[in-house]
Amino acid sequence: MAQIAITLAEIAEKIGATLVAKDDQLLVSGIATLELAESDQISFLANPSYRKQLVDTQAAAVILHPDLQEESPVPVLVMNNPYVGFAKLSQLFNNLPEQPIAIHPSAVIAESAELGEGVSIAANVVIGESVQIGAGSRIGANSVISDHSIVGDNCLLHANVVMYHDVVIGNNCILHSGCVLGADGFGFAPDAGNWVKIAQLGGVRLGDDVEVGANTTIDRGALGHTQIGNGVKLDDQIMIAHNVVIGDCCAIAATSGIAGSTILGKNCTIAGGVGIAGHLELTDGVHITGMTLVSKSIKEPGAYSSGTAIMPAKEWRKSATRFRQLDDMARRLKTLEKNQ
Amino acid sequence: MAQIAITLAEIAEKIGATLVAKDDQLLVSGIATLELAESDQISFLANPSYRKQLVDTQAAAVILHPDLQEESPVPVLVMNNPYVGFAKLSQLFNNLPEQPIAIHPSAVIAESAELGEGVSIAANVVIGESVQIGAGSRIGANSVISDHSIVGDNCLLHANVVMYHDVVIGNNCILHSGCVLGADGFGFAPDAGNWVKIAQLGGVRLGDDVEVGANTTIDRGALGHTQIGNGVKLDDQIMIAHNVVIGDCCAIAATSGIAGSTILGKNCTIAGGVGIAGHLELTDGVHITGMTLVSKSIKEPGAYSSGTAIMPAKEWRKSATRFRQLDDMARRLKTLEKNQ
Amino acid sequence: MAQIAITLAEIAEKIGATLVAKDDQLLVSGIATLELAESDQISFLANPSYRKQLVDTQAAAVILHPDLQEESPVPVLVMNNPYVGFAKLSQLFNNLPEQPIAIHPSAVIAESAELGEGVSIAANVVIGESVQIGAGSRIGANSVISDHSIVGDNCLLHANVVMYHDVVIGNNCILHSGCVLGADGFGFAPDAGNWVKIAQLGGVRLGDDVEVGANTTIDRGALGHTQIGNGVKLDDQIMIAHNVVIGDCCAIAATSGIAGSTILGKNCTIAGGVGIAGHLELTDGVHITGMTLVSKSIKEPGAYSSGTAIMPAKEWRKSATRFRQLDDMARRLKTLEKNQ
Asked: What ipTM, to 2 d.p.?
């Protein structure tokens, strides 16, 4: 892959840092950790626990908080939030192959579809009736966008993405491979031991700047839409059920699932493997730790957990057995206290 | 999308309700909740907790149980099971785009494949040797059906579905995007620190009226088939391992997994995030609550759970620490009782 | 499908067993359990709990440990590890349809891609710039391999697999449908309530003999690669986050997830539904039981668990309530002991 080389001066400007260096035209061609960085790579110090590695770093320059500026043996890119500096820097070195601004001849595109300027459609893409693709958006190979769906501007759909009909995504969204937006919500009416399907008549609505991980699924609404706010980040293998509403800038880690009609406030962070039951409401700023089952609404911001901590299996079996007897133990404890 | 409009009389006939209305030719064009319904939309009252919304509803008509018929301010569609009425009604307003009854020229279909009458094959579909597709079935874009597999009549495969070889599905099945039927079961023999692959020689068999959610996987059997009964409903992101047998009309919610050779009886309901260990047997009518680990067979119908309830993380850490000491606590409690 | 028939002598040679039989030219055409095997099928006894079925078996021959050789009423294939014998036998009867050694005309292959000898490319495959496919590898329909990625020799990619750019897999790997290798790791820097994307600059590296299940995702590294060792077996619906390192010959069951930068030693076995937090280190030979949350590093080999055992839901609710009071119970117990 082509090598990228950028001067320190250019980097400082693009990431919004103040450069402290003798040679602002020094060329750098990559990013690495403080420990591994070589003389043509930039590093950063965001986590204080790596501070001791600063003194020995071989990096061409380091992104640092002003308080640590004096400790660096190498040129410094000074910023109040070095981790954001690193994030912006990483984008400068992005090695994602460019997709040609063209419609691949193997793509199958309905005549009624409207493609904006600078759109790129890769091989074997299938685009349905009345679909709209915004300017600058790129659709990866073998993706399918069904009738009446809308992709905003500057979106990036990787290979093998599926958008069902009536799915609308905002600008600057990234959808990773294997994600499915708009499959039917899981709705059935019980009828004498059988299940009668409830047609899922709503759609899916994503705001701007949403990222959806690989093999994540967001189901369409039953009546009304499933809604994902602006700036929401979803990891891989997540399940968002019908009519869920996720507030702006929530981040949800992999393999979590949110059941139907649940509402998340803004700026919630949900760790991996979490399950959130249906028809609940979580306020803004809730943090759920890994593999927690959320079985009731949460009205106060803060961190919440369920489950037990890991143990050697042999000892765990004893605790698990005692867990079954907990109510009995509690009653016996009370009796002892009374008889004291 | 085209607007659908139906008379109340037609709706009553199609959902099996008794219409109580002055004007049975009133046209309605949608469905909404009691609270949101406008004068051209139908609503329903299935959950008693919404009963108080009935008196103020603006709906064109409401599907109601006979007991509540007198309370409605608007025309009534009377049924013993209003929720089933709603389900049937939703199907009348289904807005899934129609797929043309045709073979798209980009599809790659083996000469030995047999397609029934009225079959629809979308763009870029790949169909293998000796595959059979039943009458009226629709195969979505970019789906792949491998050699010797069989799709029943009136099935709907959405885009990007994969059926491996020797996978047989019944009539009226719905497979959502990204689901994979017939990948190899997870079988390996340990051999001095390495794993020797056990070829998975069985197939997958689905009954009639089965729905499989987006990105759900059903593995093929090792010897013999993995079997899914009639009327089974599987949500998204579910994993069904090799040689699992699922009884008729079970419903399983998203992100659950069932390990190899486990047998579920009929009419079981499995909530989301559940894990069921291998080689177990669950009788008919078992209900498993969310994120439960089922580690032994279940012989009595009823509801079962594991895990702990959600707490503020700070308090949870204390309980989790004590959980590790539970066996010790139980012994000390016993000692106190003895010494009493 | 074509019937396979093999003589006992040929089987003995191919699985490395000693044949004890009057007629070593007897033809067999399948495998079955001791109980179900018919006179043209081979069976095996690996699990002692099936020993009592041996005496009545109708199988053409049985794979047995030398110690049990005398108990067989039918010809015997003697091996020290009968389960490995069964595994090798199953491969002889593999019924996976052969894929023609050819490039399907509908495939879209960059001119700079290099295909080895005997490569098979199915319909609608898309292969990017500078991709290398090793000799004898087969790429299933509708799969996508992006720029600069490398597939080793004798690999099998089933339908609808996605490899992003800069993903390198070794020889003899099997990737099942819907798996995604190289999607972006979940990396964002918080910036005043918003998330700034960290471009994921690393790739994915798989060793030889790795199997990846259906709909499993392995994310690319942030800086440096996500690494999967030789002989690792991953089941379906697994999530491997960025910069995870998995040691040789680990086996991980379905729906488990491993968070970023965690390192697994060699020969670990992870059951289904397990979650492993990020930045941890597990030594060689660790076994994690189903649905355990691994929240700290593990330095000793052995089995580990978390969670609670399944109970009837009604009783479980009592234990779950008491779990919340555990710290209080422990303090009261201590007080009683003091006052004794």
From this structure: 0.96
